[in-house]
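User: Working on a comparison across species. This one is Acyl-coenzyme A dehydrogenase from Bradyrhizobium daqingense. Can you predict its structure so I can line it up against the others?
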Amino acid sequence: MSFRRDKITKPIFSWARGVLPAMSDTEREALEAGDVWWDADLFTGNPDWSKLLKVPQARLTEEEQAFLNGPVDELCAMLDEWKIFWEWRDLPPDVWHFVKREKFFGMIIPKEFGGLGFSPYAHSEVVRKISTRSIAAAVTVMVPNSLGPGELLMRFGTTEQQARWLPRLADGRDIPCFGLTSPEAGSDAASMVDTGVICKGEFEGREVVGLRLNWHKRYITLGPVATLLGLAFKAYDPDHLVGGQEELGITVALIPTNLPGVEIGQRHLPSMQVFQNGPNWGRDVFIPLDYVIGGKERLGQGWKMLMTALAAGRGISLPSLSAAGAAYAARTTGAYARIREQFGISISKFEGVEEPLARIVATAYQLDAARRLTCAALNAGIHPAVISGIMKLHATERMRTAIDDAMDIHGGKAVIDGPQNYLGNLHRAVPVGITVEGANILTRNLIVFGQGAIRAHPFLLDEMNALADTDRERGLTAFDKAFWKHVGHSFRTLFRAFGRSWTFGAFATAPDAGDATPFYRQLSRYSAAFALCADMALLTLGGALKRREMLSARFGDILSELYLLSAALKRWQDEGRQKEDFAALEWCMATGFKTIENRLAEILANLPNRFVAGFLKLVVQPFGARVLGPSDRIVHQCAGIVLEPSAARERLTPDLALLDDDGGFARLERAFKLVAATDAITKPMRAAQLRDWKEAVTKGVITQAEGEQLAAARAAVTGVIEVDDFAPEALSPIYKKSGDVHQFFQELGEQRAAS
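Assistant: Here's the predicted structure for Acyl-coenzyme A dehydrogenase from Bradyrhizobium daqingense:
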């Protein structure tokens, strides 16, 4: 063993130390935050499917279900999105009072501190349901329960801090926000110029050691109404009051917003969304050291704390909103396509409509599958950092596609705004989700694979830690152990990938999963191909791979598809292999396989080392990218899931905020049910080439009762198709009273003529 280490490994070790780029503290802290989970299995190239299928389903407790059926439903009934958005530009006072009283802001806070003590899945379900009623309300509820002072206090706060602040956050006495983004530092948080200088100062009548803070933050959700600000800044100790180090690094602290020097700015208006959001400043704000979350011992550890909290938060809030948006789009668009007629037939019969409708349906199926699987991990105490990044990125991106498709199918119905438009505001809100909690461009190009390749790879992080060890001999010994395990793993992956690719996965590992068994085989095949190509890219490019962002993004896309497709398979299994849902699963698989094969082909076409690229093509893609996506049959069957009332439709779109009011969504639901119930009536009328139900009754084609039922359905459809219009003075202050618009323009024309 010593011969191998000293004669073979040592030169490799010396070479690798020379070419390995230095890792910044923020990069290392981001890598060390959170956990690896199923992503690590996918990186092995040989995932253990039994491990996935044994993961307990995320379920609600009786108490959590009662909250969803009680206060959440009550809150949804209080929300009028049109008035919130157009008239009030905020949640009304009774809603603010209700969410505080019912502890919506304290869902994740343990019961011993006065919170509800709910699981991550319950948090997700609450956000999901509210999202289908009001984006503003959903964002208001989600922020205190994700990345914010509450999460950080529970994980890192001192006993005294938890006892002081958590009860106040739980019952709404304090409204929290978190200040991270600065004008100078968005995605690159390490570039922030906000500072905290350790010094002595007076606080509450006594001299203490503390921090004098200066900051400027923007885009801070709940910032304009917050009473407790979580703040990220760079801490400095020029007088060495707490130690010998001058630059301590990013730190997080709690700042009551009533402290002298705190300035709360006016509101931002993000994509016309009216949840509270705005900038704030601090000018020479002094706080004692015990306001640092975790106390003095946590000075300089803020970035790691934030990344750890984000590893959980990014897997819950935005994926929940996105899954809700896709399910909402599936339910409303299927219903609208079913009741809307053009050229004498339902537009749902047009293949041009079926294609985007099927995409919406399958997206809803897949996003909710991934949401549930991720929540299952979080419920088990796992904080999967890479998977949370995948979820935030792909949930918001796929929601964007689903909402765009829904808008296209609805046409003018979704374009004309007003109280009856149930899609327009959701469409406007999509860019917010794309941008926040890590911009999607950055996440796709740098985070998913850049972080995943190191964290989830079986040996790479061990090798990097060994190379960075200041004790050269200890590092060499550790590197020797990890490196040769890596070599053995790579050869096994090579032969596995070769065999599975040349046989199209026919003999790849898979559980007995009925009709879905072949899908597992293909994922095992693609996992091996991915693992081999990733290893070879890392070997040939080394640290330069993180600068090849397009290559990194393609690898990230493959890893993401492997996870999302795994989640879809898990859902189908957990729900009892429902035959009626199989078309949605088929669509997901065919589309995901196409993406994986195309990304592999793009990677092989762009790897700088052309010899290695040619070798890999021979091993993993000898016949090229062959999957074409879902067939027309699959598209037709997938779209059909939401075109009739059925158990499959309810499974796809469960627990939406279905209120029996006069809103656009409720009108649509009623019309859909009425139209579906008249199928048997319209068939003989079509055969007799009759459209007038009265004429059909007169001729004995249908009964009077059937005619009246058909009339009710048609009236309901008319009510849905109608769009809102407004008096001129309702839209513009220019017009003082009804009718002035014509006089206004007449006078304007006369003035122009006179001039």
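For your comparison, note: The domain at 175-305 is CATH 2.40.110.10 (Butyryl-CoA Dehydrogenase, subunit A; domain 2).

User: Helpful, thanks.
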